[in-house]
């Protein structure tokens, strides 16, 4: 592991939490490095030193930022920010990039396979595990089809009818100043790629204030709860195994202490973003 320090200028809407997520860094490390007394008080234009621990990686033919991020088990946005990559994030073979939070490679130069097993079929928004030992591009999931398969006989099909999303598939969120897809994905326990696909967003770095986004949620995890007398966000979050911050963000609650009976809340069950 090596350590690097990167200078970052705080932008409107930034928090130490969102900045730490951008760089796959620790909030505590940023606080200590910059002698911040109150972590809640940072302001636009403030210069921060971001300490990063990670490894160096030499790009191979066929690599993409997303592939490398999956291989090391780190957010691909962190690689983009740590290496100051510019959209569309093209990287070239034999160049060296820094992987924040990455672990040392094995003898074959490939980091250990992440222990997390993705369910099959995958929940909406979660990628399949990266294929190890295969040349790029990876074979399709389930293997290649048998050759020389006869073409199916075309049959008349009824005209397609637009289908409505199944209940619990997504909820709608209105973009606020300072929002990024990365921060929203972390708070709502989904991925940047899933939100981008659900909203036909070509450049994940470009979203507009006031834009209405469909936030995909894994099947069975979306709940609507009506506040009852005596309720608090703390108790509701504990009941549904989520966080106050996730509920407040999903429901545009400026002051988590102020909810009222009859208020209808969007809740993502089991969503507990890392602190």
UniProtKB/TrEMBL annotation:
Residues 6-50, 55-99, 171-215, 223-267 form the LysM domain. Transmembrane segments: none annotated. Gene3D superfamilies: LysM domain (3.10.350.10). PANTHER family: LYSM DOMAIN-CONTAINING GPI-ANCHORED PROTEIN 2, MEMBRANE-BOUND LYTIC MUREIN TRANSGLYCOSYLASE D. This is LysM peptidoglycan-binding domain-containing protein.
């Amino acid at each position: 592991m090596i350590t690097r320090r990167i200078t970052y200028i705080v932008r409107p809407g930034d928090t130490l939490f969102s900045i730490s997520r951008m760089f796959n860094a620790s909030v505590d490390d940023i606080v200590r490095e910059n002698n911040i007394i109150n972590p809640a008080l940072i302001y636009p234009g403030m210069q921060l030193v971001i300490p990063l621990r990670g490894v160096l990686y030499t790009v191979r033919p066929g690599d993409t930022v997303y592939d490398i991020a999956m291989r090391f088990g780190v957010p691909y946005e962190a690689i983009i920010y740590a290496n100051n990559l510019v959209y569309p994030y093209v990287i070239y073979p034999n160049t060296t990039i820094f992987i924040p939070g990455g672990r040392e490679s094995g003898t074959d130069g490939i980091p250990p396979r992440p222990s997390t097993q993705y369910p099959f079929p995958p929940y909406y928004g979660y990628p399949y595990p990266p294929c190890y030992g295969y040349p790029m591009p990876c074979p399709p999931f389930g293997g290649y089809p048998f050759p020389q398969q006869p073409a199916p006989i075309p049959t008349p099909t009824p005209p397609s009818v637009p289908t409505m999303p199944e209940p619990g598939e997504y909820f709608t969120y209105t973009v606020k100043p300072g929002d990024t897809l990365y921060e929203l994905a972390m708070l709502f326990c989904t991925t940047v790629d899933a939100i981008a696909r659900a909203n036909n967003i070509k450049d994940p770095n470009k979203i507009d204030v006031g834009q209405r986004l469909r936030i995909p949620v894994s099947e069975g995890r979306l709940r609507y709860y009506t506040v009852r007398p005596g309720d608090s966000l703390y108790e509701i979050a504990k009941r549904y195994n989520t966080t106050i911050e996730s509920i407040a963000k999903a429901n545009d609650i400026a002051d988590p202490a102020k909810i009222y009976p009859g208020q209808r809340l969007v809740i993502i069950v089991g969503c507990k973003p890392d602190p």
